[in-house]
Design a protein that fits this description.
This protein is mostly helical and 723 residues long. Among the domains are: 217 residues, no CATH class; 234 residues, no CATH class; 50 residues. 63% of the residues lie in helices and 4% in strands. The chain is built from 31 helices and six strands. A two-stranded antiparallel ribbon has the order 1-2. The chain has a two-stranded antiparallel sheet with strand order 3-4. A hairpin with a 5-residue loop joins strand 5 and strand 6. The longest helix has 47 residues. The radius of gyration is 31 Å and the shape is globular.
Length: 723
Amino acid sequence: MKLIYHAWMVPLFPLISSILIGLGLFFFPKATKNLRRIYAIISISLLGTAMFIPPHLSWQQINGNPIYRYLWSWIHNKNVTLEVGYLIDPLTPIMSVPITTIGVMVTIHSDSYMPHDQGYLRFFAYPSLSNAPMLGLVLSPNLIQIHIFRELVGMCSYSLIGFRFTRPNAANARQKASITNRVGDSGSSLGISGSYRITGSFEFEDLSELFNKLLANHEVSLFFATFCALSPFPGSVAKSAQSPLHVWLPDAMEGPTPISAPIHAATMVAAGIFLVARMFPLFKALPLMMSLISRIGGITALLGATIALAQKDLKRVLAYSTMSQLGYIMLAPGIGSYRAALFHLITHAYSKALSFPGSGSVIHSMEPIVGYCPDKSQNMAFMGGLRKYMPITGTTFLLGTLSPCGIPPFACFRSKDEILADSRLYFPILGWMAWFIAGLTGFYMFRMYFPTPEGDFRANPSNKHSISPSVSIWEENQTIKSGKGMDFALSFVKNKKGSKELELFNPLENIEESGEKEMENPVSTHYSQKEYPLYPKESNNIMLFPLLVPTIPTLFIGFIGVPFSKEKMGFDLLSYWLDPSLSYSHKMDSEEFWINATTSVGTAFWGIFIALILYGPLFLSRNLQEETDPQSEGILGYFPSSLYNWSYSRGYIDGYYNTVFVRGTRTLAEIISFPDQRILDGIVNGVGISSFFGGEVLRYGEGGRISYYLFGLISGMFILLII
């Protein structure tokens, strides 16, 4: 049986899993919660079943099977014809394989990360539900279908980001993500309408052919065609967190840690890139469109890399790393490197599928020590030396750090090198900017790595390199500098006996303050009030399994872009897989490849070397002791304070948006409401009051005698006759 005819079953399996959990929670909540582990196994099994179909589709495409499209009529009349179905081409398995494999690993990781959360089953329903529309989006053959599935992906991401909706930060983050993506999707709707107006079709295969034909025959102006092609692009900008609609992605870290991997690697951010890849045959005929895509990608890559330099939250560093790498991926199709863009999309997906579960393992081990507050459990200032206590997590975290830096032989080395080489040939300034970003990537990734698994553990006061060696534990809310830009606050609370104790080492204390902080996980029932660990410990085997499996593609997935022989540079598995008419990339000979590779790796190593000097274990330990003096400039003294403040404040972009759009909209609403309330409402209210008083006056003129009424009537008629 050829599975290509049953590809519609791929999104069906995760959808069934989500429906089963939802129906169970709705109709049999108590019994479903008691059987939650069984439901978790069912969810993993169904998604695992869907995981085996895309590799089979990939093998059929490699073996030369033609593109398969199955459609059936949905709307059919004289004016509009709309068909729905699914499309199997080389791009479909490229996207569906990472989605299903990463989805399975994240689901297994969640089973160990979330077992003591009261919303355990509700959480399990969300990732399965988000995988279903993402797989449906990948299979979509037309613009309408892909738009519907993108909206469903956004809805699921809204639920995942705001999973702990009782926390104001989480509630605000999901609203921010939703509104930002609505801004982009409004342009997509306009572009879809314009494309149909020109071509009369929503199908991807017809759009590029009809557009090119109309442009060649001068039946449509280049400006209008560019406008119609540009209109759907804001949706991709928002979904893939491209500047200036990137502001939702860092705040999406408010969701539970396990959902960060599917959001950043396989689902929402990939939805925007996928639309650009689908419409690339159309975009490449429009030079202005290609130039815009490359510029937006380059700006996003630079912005994400510079903002990541000063972040102290572990997950936010990875979030801005994702934003920067997505900028690389968006830059590539803008310079015509369609193959390099898809190559880096695959390698980056598996790299982040290793990094985010690794960060989840780190955070999970820190929570019993520092508390279940994200401001502490995710703060790199409290970490250090984790590789001693968590060797497997530390090793996999190092691999996930090396890969985005482009260090051989890891996945992103070859894909990033192609983008750097092609960008330099396309536009030298853009190329040099891409090289500079590669150096920044090595710096901020190891700025994250050195203070986390390396050095000494800083959350234990018995350690000589503790973060608080000379701080009086009786001072409340004292701010301490722990390292270059890693500022944090230690707060103290009174216990039942009235004495003060350090909140850092009380994992059973609910540390919500003014609704701003809430436990990352509700407290596990197996922790007693008398026993809690002073040092982190390695995660259990269930949580380690999703860390070990992604190391395989992180190490070897990059070989799909390696040429088979020196004589056939450029002839590799990925090029053979993709459509030859689209898979253009600069063909480098062996000498040119080694020159570019040496330069890119050298640039990354310079960034790593600078990070080693400023954040390495020896330097970090020395500076931690120096910074016990409140007057010390600390490690940040090496950098201009204005640059650090700009980076730490996210480039002031969030503040600008809040001032211009949020406060500006409120001020405009107040200005508009003034004439509405004072003038329009005043006129309506004045008419009503006048009618009321007029009626009161006339009421006193009524005596109830008919003779008086007849006299008044005759008198009025007589006066009218005289007039």
